[in-house]
Amino acid sequence: MRHALGEVRYRVDAATLLHEDFARAAVGRGQARYPGFSDDPLDGFRDLATDLVRFGSVFLAGTTAEFAALVTKAERTRPPRGFAALPLAITLLGWAWAHLRTRPARNAAP
Question: pLDDT tier at 1 (50, 70, 90 boundaries)?
Fold first, then answer.
């Protein structure tokens, strides 16, 4: 028996979107409630319902063309994942390392 939601995917004809991508394209990054982090397995269902009320009308009542436009927007704004994200991660680590090397030590004499 499943006690929590798993992957949520929307599909209209051949076009599909994960909830994370759907939410990012519809309302912006970090604006979705699902998936949240809670000890109560029902919170996932509540959070998904809240998201659907807030910005799910394109999927629930929109046209195929409107959903396809959201899919296109999601694909354009998708952050890199997996190995594609490595150049950004390496750049950020390099910046952090360079920044830390130029800072004086905490216990250095004034």
Answer: very low
